[in-house]
Design brief:
It contains 5 helices and 7 strands; from the N terminus they run E-H-H-E-E-H-E-H-E-H-E-E. It is an alpha+beta fold. The protein has a single domain, classed as Gcn5-related N-acetyltransferase (GNAT) (Aminopeptidase, 3-Layer(aba) Sandwich), CATH 3.40.630.30.
Length: 169
């Protein structure tokens, strides 16, 4: 599996991923507001603009990657690295968000996505990464702990308990 920047090459797969997650009622974590975009080109411009402090359209600069299975060039998941933390991200969201297609879960992809994402964090210059997940998401918690995530605390957000972990790179 490799992480690649979104491009028109993956347009149909990205939109299929979006529609699949919406149909399943799943959270499009790590997709940088993809849920809000019915037009791929508009979303792609938004994502590209957000990598630069001068052109960002969201609260913090961020890098989005597609997790692509190399054997068949299939979009397996997304990951999003926020280069900085605002108050909300510090308390509830963290530096990283990621997701995996429903039919590709429990195959080790989340573990591989996080491993590669942490390498990108280091490359970007983030040496202490905040990762957060819902307490009910036991699989995500286990993946975070696998990479040295130290639980700082639990916080309540809209009735959900959020676990906040730090990973030193």
């Amino acid at each position: 599996m490799k992480l690649v920047k979104p491009s028109t090459k993956y347009k149909s797969q990205v939109m299929e991923y979006r529609n699949e997650f919406i149909s399943n009622g799943d959270d499009l974590a790590g997709t940088s507001y993809l849920r809000q975009y019915e037009n791929f080109e508009e979303w792609l411009k938004f994502v590209q603009d957000n990598e630069n402090e001068q052109t960002k359209q969201s609260e913090v600069t961020a890098s989005v990657f597609l997790a692509i299975r190399e054997e068949d060039d299939r979009l397996i998941g997304f990951t999003n690295i926020r280069h900085a933390l605002n108050d909300y991200l510090f308390n509830y969201g963290g530096h990283v968000g990621y997701s995996v297609r429903k039919d590709e879960r429990r195959k080790g992809y989340a573990t591989e996505i996080l491993r590669k994402t942490l390498k990108e964090c280091r490359r970007i210059g983030i040496d202490r990464v905040l990762l957060a997940c819902d307490k009910s998401n036991v699989a995500s918690s286990k993946v975070i702990q696998l990479y040295g995530g130290e639980l700082e605390n639990e916080v309540l957000n809209d009735g959900e308990v959020i676990l906040r972990y730090w990973v030193d790179l």
